[in-house]
Amino acid sequence: MSAASPTARAQRRSTLVTAVAGAVCAIAAAYLLLVTVPGARAEQRAFKAAHPCRSDAVSKKCLRPAAATVNGTETVTSGKSVQRWLSVTEDDGTRHRILMAGRPSVVGKVRPGDRVTVTHWHHKSRFVDFHNRRQPTDDDPRGGYRLPYAIALGLLPVAAGFLWAAYRFGRRSADSPRRSLRRIALPSAAALLLGVLGAAMPWFLRSVWTPLLITGAGTAALLAWVVLATRRDRPRKDGAGAPVARVPGGEEVLAPGP
Asked: Residue range 101-106: average pLDDT?
């Protein structure tokens, strides 16, 4: 048997790499949607349902406020990312360095020596109160599902695009180079745009199901489009689509005599 040509080996390598990338994206999206996001939403519901602890309570499931004194604040900038830290000492002597989230409604107002209230839940600082201001910490579980949800919705159409590209790479020899490139590039670009849209929706829509429905419907429509386009371009095998010789205008075709 003759060795495979370099073109054939490159084609198989492209097919394998693209298929593996699509499978990895699909598995990651499924894990985020089925495990990470439901877990984060369950934690959010439990946090919203929690009540302040009684003075003699020992449960970690209730909200435990603790009076504290501000030691100082720190702002760490890395590129476009800004981290705001709040250092406090509770009345029992416990010291905390807390990464704050959201708008700096508290960390931007307090000074060393100010008194604040740090509320704990499951042994983590969840938000800080200062007079009539409240600022969540980075451990506040409200809205914590949005980031993994956005990543999952972004990966879904990208996974479909990778898997379709792998399928087309495997059939590339049956197409002309220009048609093969069009069949791979256009659906891949559409999948990427759909992934960007899906990743953005959880940050702007309050509904949990709407982003998933829109992304899922868009991905299904994309797959239906490329499948129908492929079937439409597929050559017929019954001879009905065979090219018919045309007779130049003005010429007469004479049938052969007996």
From this structure: 92
H helix intervals, 32-145: 37-49
Using CA atoms, how far apart are residues 146 and 187, in angstroms rounded to an integer? 27
How crowded is the C-beta side of 68, counted as CA atoms within 13 Å? Answer: 30
CA 257 to chain centre: 74
In whole angstroms, what is the distance from residue 201 CA to residue 135 CA?
25
Phi, psi of 179, rounded to the nearest 5 degrees: -65, -40
* Whether 201 contacts 215, CB under 8 Å: yes
In this structure, what token pair is assigned to residue 209? 């199901």
> Can you tell me the mean pLDDT for 111-137?
95
Which tens digit of pLDDT belongs to each residue from 190-237? 889 999 999 999 999 888 899 999 998 988 888 888 778 767 655 554
Kind plus residue range of the DSSP H or E element containing 157: helix 146-170
SS3 for 57?
A: coil
Tell me the pLDDT tens digit for each residue of 50-77: 998 876 666 778 999 999 999 999 999 9
DSSP label of 128: E
Reading the block at residue 76, the tokens are: 């760490």
d(CA 242, CA 247) in angstroms, rounded, equals 16
